[in-house]
Design brief:
9 strands; Helicase, Ruva Protein, domain 3; about 260 residues; elongated; 10 helices; 7-stranded mixed sheet; two-stranded antiparallel ribbon; alpha/beta
Length: about 260
């Protein structure tokens, strides 16, 4: 069957690039380090290349696939394995408690480029149900996820994720590991929830709003980009120079500023 026709063909609107390099797949499973009894969840299993190696572990495995043409193929592929559950669903609306109400899940997947950032933000709100995650994403996104303050890649996604997760770059993946090959490189990144979020307790919605506004105009200073949300004196009270740009502000400082804004309301 050609790549351009029939069930299982890559769909551009879903951002599908099917992973087919067995060495890369083995390295992802190794990075995930599944343990007996853990419940696994793969986002975007596609044709099942990574799923096959996960299925061989005998752990309970949930496969979340949005493509209705791929779901019957996956159901047929794993029909004999009662430990595998297939869900035809958009991962951006996935509630992890529906998969495992009593505990945490180990998340893994080759994420479609067009949803990776949105999915990370979606999973942030469900972090108490996550044991750890290993995802393949576009290299540009991986750089943002693991960036340090002061770098050009440091931004909203960095701050939001690294407030609650420890992020670790694992390895890069050549475009030729996929069908069809994407135009850019990919990277595998691992995430583990921190024992406690960085800094003082803050309102989640208010914190997200502050960080979003801070990075909405990257070239402007905090004083300008946060105008209307907090005063210059409040920025100084958080130990920050109002003239710095948002990419120079650490995660802990953003949390401290958010706590002061909340207290000042």
């Amino acid at each position: 069957m050609s790549e351009r026709s029939g069930p299982g063909r890559p769909r551009k609107r879903f951002g599908q690039h099917f992973l087919n390099d067995q060495t890369v797949i083995a390295r992802i499973v190794e990075a995930l380090h599944p343990r007996p009894g853990e419940i696994l969840c793969e986002i975007g299993p596609g044709r099942g290349a990574l799923s096959d190696q996960l299925a061989a572990l005998d752990n309970e495995l949930h496969l979340v696939e949005i493509d209705r043409d791929l779901v019957p193929l996956l159901q047929k592929r794993y029909a004999a394995q009662s430990n595998i559950h297939i869900h035809e669903q958009d991962a951006l609306t996935l509630a992890l408690e529906t998969l495992h109400a009593a505990g945490r899940l180990v998340m893994v997947g080759n994420l479609p480029y067009n949803i990776s950032t949105a999915l990370m933000i979606h999973l942030l709100a469900q972090r108490e149900r996550i044991e750890r995650m290993v995802f393949m994403v576009q290299k540009e996104v991986a750089l943002r996820l693991t960036a340090s303050p002061g770098s050009k890649d440091y931004g909203r996604l960095t701050v939001m994720m690294n407030r609650v997760f420890e992020s670790e770059f694992i390895f890069d993946v050549d475009p030729h590991a996929f069908t069809p090959p994407p135009k850019v490189w990919s990277s595998v990144v691992a995430f583990k929830p921190l024992a406690a979020p960085v800094g003082p307790k803050v309102d989640e919605v208010a914190f997200a709003a502050l960080v979003r506004q801070a990075f909405s105009q990257r070239r402007k200073t905090l004083r300008n980009t946060l105008k209307g949300l907090c005063s210059e004196s409040l920025i100084e009270k958080a130990g920050l120079d109002p003239k710095v740009r948002p990419e120079q502000v650490s995660v802990a400082s953003f949390v401290q500023l958010a706590a002061l804004v909340e207290k000042n309301d």
